[in-house]
Amino acid sequence: MSRAVHFSAVCVLVFALFFIVQSCYAQISDSTSITAFDQTVDEAMTQSGVPGLAIALIERGQVIWTKGYGLADKEAGISVTPSTLFQAASVSKSLSAWAVMRLVEQGKLALDTPVSHYLTRWKLPDTGYGSNAVTLRRILSHTAGLSVPGYLGFGPGQALQSIEASLASADDTGHQGVRVIYHPGASFHYSGGGYTVIQLIIEEATHSDFAQWVQRNVLEPLEMQHSSFVPPAAHAASYDAYGARVPDRRFTALAAAGLYSSAADLGKFVAALLNGPHGEAIGRGVLATQTVRDVLMPQPSSESSEILVLSEWGLGYGLKFLPESKHTLVYHPGDNIPGFHNFIAAIPSARAGLVVLTNGAQGRQLRMTVLCTWLRMHNEGTLQECRGR
């Protein structure tokens, strides 16, 4: 063997050993960080009074750790697992945004066309604020000026509205229905009602049932095998502030609040925002990489402090600039009151993500503690909301 060949072989071996050691160090570091994270979360869970919690951690673009804490059903003594289904609440909106963007890629919808162009089964009332300026881009970023911030759902024995009836009256909210109440494009006003408009547009554009179309075209391709916009036979129960079980609520407004999912499945969804560990592309084949990047771009007039102080909004996601690292936190909360309080988050530049699902009324505080603990794992944690946590 020549000296050149021998030298090349040695170099290859050295580089290989370097990457093996680096990989092992990363795994050890992950393990140490996760142990500390787990201990902090376990203590916070015990103190919170929340019956059940499920978490997924995403690193390097893949789910690396999931865990369930506490009980999914106190009466039956059923423990939470990473596969336990929760009502995802408004986390549904991020999945619905992917459905819209898939149809945009297919040329069936356009972000800046007035939504009146797509609606035949129901029309936005003319309230004098310029309903023709309501577009999918503005609805997705909550800048369309629409009413109905959220939905309460329908309890046992209550008949579900049709989607058209919900848009016209939204009986479970006390609102008069979905209408333009602020000038479109002028400012941020969170509207679950806008996502019900999106639900109807998807049905009109695809000539399909919303839940079935999203199942085939978004959930299944992302391998979210246990998730659905159709209520499953078994899922986590929810509990009020006194620990009493709350009757199940069902939703006509599926795109806004109707997804059932698990920490393991939502972990896959969050990971799809990131480059995968083995060359998997952002979007995982459901959306093009550039489309996902467009989704995570701040939209005009979307500044808000409603959820995290001084956020902006993309298309279906909140965006919070982290001044210490210059990274952006991508997130969406989910609250089906009183018991389901959830959160998904990602730092795309770090290829890291988080899923938090809870089933108790105190879950809002617990999820923020979990979020702040996770941010500190990534040398973040300077959010105003993390002070004292």
Any overview of this molecule?
- The protein is α+β, with helices and mostly antiparallel strands and 389 residues long.
- The longest helix has 46 residues, at 3-48.
- The protein is built from 10 helices and 12 strands.
- An 8-stranded antiparallel sheet has the order 3-2-1-12-11-10-9-8, sandwiched between helices. Strands 4-7 form a two-stranded antiparallel ribbon.
- The chain is globular and about 55 Å long.
- It has helices spanning 3-48, 92-105, 136-140, 163-169, 192-206, 210-219, 254-257, 263-271, 289-295, 363-377; strands spanning 52-59, 62-73, 78-79, 86-87, 238-239, 245-246, 260-261, 312-313, 318-322, 327-336, 340-347, 352-358.
- It has a single domain (38-378), classed as 3-Layer(aba) Sandwich (Beta-lactamase), CATH 3.40.710.
- The termini are far apart.
